[in-house]
Amino acid sequence: MEIRYEHGICLEDKNRKVILDPSRQSDIGVVTHGHMDHLVKDAYMTHHTLDILGVRTGERRGKGIHYGFPRPVGGFDITLYPAGHVFGSAMVMVEDVLYTGDFNTDGGKTCGKASAYRCNTLIIETTYGKIDYRLPSKKEVIDDMLAWTRSEVDEGPVVFGAYEFGKAQEAISLLNSIGEVPYVPEKVARLNEIYNKHGVSLKYRTGTPEGNFTAVVPPSDLKKSPGALVELARKNNGTCAYLSGWCAFYSFFHSMNIDAQFPLSDHAGFDELMDYVKRCQPERVFTVHGSAKEFARSVEEELGIEATALK
Ligand SMILES: [Zn+2]
């Protein structure tokens, strides 16, 4: 089977062809999850992602697949497995080739977690593929974030900036676990409804809060022209925090105008990526996204497995 980059990750063998995470509409495409840089119409995806596509683009156009059930696409049999990245995210097994898509072996409260699968060829995402991209333990990050929330919410409003799909709902679910029901903008609420429809319970409020409150807003709302909830919090002596895996490596205090940052990641860090390759026991590895070249080099040097950056 030939594997190359052609408007997505193209797998071709005689007269069979499938494109994983296609960059444009494709009826032989498989979309792994609902982040905007992956969403295209007409492709195959989980039913969850299809609903997210509908909310984010206004058109619910594609073919829904259940996790774990093989389905013919472009002449191949493909199977989707949970990727633990965001709600509805999937890894794709095409015969003996596994494509991880964006994934996280720690998973989250709103998206399950990724398991390892034996495969001949592994195509792995390498957002944090550089050797210094080592993430702290997820449990530690969550404990810190919730302890900080408990102490700050007695003093005034607390607002979290988190990417509107995936990270925001993870934050809401974590806040719910300590009895907080955060306010969210309409844009986030519309996505939350899809979670509740699929049985992932999220408690949240919309509208204008009074007194002390917690809120979860898109990161852009923290910046120069702040969103209504951020403005209200700041007027009332509130604090703002940013949630992103990149907080483990960079400071966002100035650029995001925040008081705290927590490295809550929905990707695997370098150590988890290496461990994942070992557990899948592939004969060859392709790397995609982020630090693809650096990670391919680490796989060859540390594991002695042939590895190539795909793009
Ligand atoms: Zn993603």
Describe this structure in words.
It contains seven helices and 17 strands. It has 311 residues and is an alpha/beta fold. It has a seven-stranded mixed sheet, with helices on one face. Strands 1-2-3-4 form a four-stranded mixed sheet, with no helix packed on it. A hairpin with a 2-residue loop joins strand 2 (9-13) and strand 3. The longest helix has 15 residues, at 138-152. It is globular. The model has no long low-confidence stretch (mean pLDDT 96). It binds zinc ion. Residues 33, 35, 85, 102 line the site of zinc ion (ZN).
How do you describe this structure in short?
The chain is α/β, with parallel strands linked by helices. The protein contains seven helices and 17 strands.
* Overall mean pLDDT: 96
What ranges have pLDDT less than 50 throughout 5 or more consecutive residues? none
Total E-strand runs: 17
What's the order of the H and E elements? EEEEEHEEEEEEHEHHEHEEHEHE
Strand line-up of the largest beta sheet: 7-8-9-10-11-16-17
